[in-house]
Amino acid sequence: MSSVLPESEEKVLELIGHMRKMSTRIVLFQQNAAHSLGVIHTDLKTADILNEKGPITAGELAKLTGLTTGTVTALIDRLEQAGFVRREKDPHDGRRVIIVPVKEKQKTIGALYKPLGTMTREVCEAYTPEQLDLINTFLSRMVGVFEQANSAVSGPKPDDGCCKNGRSERHEYE
């Protein structure tokens, strides 16, 4: 049962609608950004996770993304071929291999996102520090909501036919 006051319900529905639209635009931007870098959307977002987390194993990456280990292996192969990551022996356990993000490619990705960052800053200039605190609190809580939602829908991943031989059927980049 919702605890939203009736007079707020319209505003909440409006907010949810804007979030849905923004989510769609984010996905489209990510797809276009990935395409311009010669990779697919999932690869770019995984590179982002690696840049955020730092060197990790393929198994850890599979847990973070919710992808199967086989899918992650193909994904890492594509990222390595595109120069976004490299495989290295774990300095603490030579039996393990860690996936290391390539710093130079992080700069390439950063340059691609710079105009979006500039436009976001321009939008933020219209708000007071207190309003930005409120927006940041809301967005931080929504990150938690999406983490919970992802956990709720994740489980064993069947082979959905999305990728074969490490390549997306919809996007071929040579």
Automatic annotation (TrEMBL):
This is MarR family transcriptional regulator. It holds the Pfam family MarR. The keyword Cytoplasm does not apply. The keyword DNA-binding applies. One of its GO terms (biological process) is response to stress. Keywords: DNA-binding. Residues 9-144 form the HTH marR-type domain. Transmembrane segments: none annotated. Residues 157-174 have a biased composition (Basic and acidic residues). Gene3D superfamilies: Winged helix-like DNA-binding domain superfamily/Winged helix DNA-binding domain. It comes from the Bacteria. One of its GO terms (molecular function) is DNA-binding transcription factor activity. Residues 151-174 are annotated as: Disordered. InterPro entries: HTH_MarR-typ, MarR/SlyA-like, WH-like_DNA-bd_sf, WH_DNA-bd_sf. It comes from Paenibacillus chitinolyticus.
